[in-house]
């Protein structure tokens, strides 16, 4: 049991440290809409939106405003965990520091790609629409359930022989 708790603490600490040490990639001249300050860390509107899209804390029955407030509370908690982990010196633990170095290198490569490649690529609207329509129709089944083996075999045959491009 303690081993699972130790792993959970390490995972939370890693995520928190990554949040703590993450660099802001905004243009320095771009005005920031800071909505919270936790210690020396700032949470701006862009950060909140990105977090809401990637790790949404939205629950059934709550309003959009409440969902964003819940997301902001989540980000504040993450920043507090990161500060606590940093004050404990967890980033100096060899297991953590290797992983942080790996992530730092990976994120540096991503940023270089964003600056040098992604910003120079122009995709016409027609290509966006064509890709969207193609992906919208694409369905992949890894498995399906059936009440009997004979039905499963029938479904498998139908999937192999049916042309779904027309749907």
Terminal residue distance = 51 Å
Shape: extended
What is the averaged pLDDT score?
Answer: 79
Number of strands: 2
Reading the helices and strands in chain order gives HEEHHHHH
Give the strand content: 5-15%
* Total number of helices: 6
User: What is Rg?
Assistant: 23 Å
Described by strand count, sense and barrel closure, the largest sheet is: 2 strands, antiparallel
Total individual domains:
2
Strand order of the largest sheet: 1-2
Which stretches are low in confidence, meaning pLDDT under 50 for 5 or more residues running? Answer: 23-30
Structural class label: mainly alpha
How much helicity do the residues have?
A: 55-70%
Description of the structure:
Strands 1-2 form a two-stranded antiparallel sheet. It has two domains: 2-120, no CATH class; 125-161, no CATH class. A hairpin with a 2-residue loop joins β1 and β2 (41-44). The longest helix is centred in the middle third of the chain and has 25 residues, at 64-88. It is mainly alpha-helical. It has six helices and two strands. The protein has helices at residues 2-21, 45-54, 64-88, 94-116, 125-137, 149-161; strands at 34-38, 41-44.
């Amino acid at each position: 049991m303690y081993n699972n708790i130790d792993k959970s603490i390490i995972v939370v600490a890693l995520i928190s440290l990554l949040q703590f040490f993450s660099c802001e990639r905004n243009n320095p001249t771009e005005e920031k809409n800071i909505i919270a300050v936790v210690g020396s860390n700032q949470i701006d509107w862009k950060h909140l939106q990105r977090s809401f899209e990637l790790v949404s804390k939205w629950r059934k029955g709550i309003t959009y405003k409440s969902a964003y407030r819940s997301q902001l509370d989540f980000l504040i908690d993450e920043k507090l965990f990161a500060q606590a982990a940093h004050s404990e010196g967890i980033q100096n633990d060899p297991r953590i520091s290797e992983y942080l170095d790996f992530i730092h290198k990976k994120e540096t490569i991503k940023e270089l790609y964003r600056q040098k490649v992604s910003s120079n690529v122009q995709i016409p609207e027609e290509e966006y629409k064509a890709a969207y329509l193609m992906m919208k129709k694409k369905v992949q089944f890894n498995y399906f359930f059936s009440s009997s083996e004979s039905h499963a075999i029938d479904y498998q045959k139908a999937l192999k022989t049916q042309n779904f491009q027309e749907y």
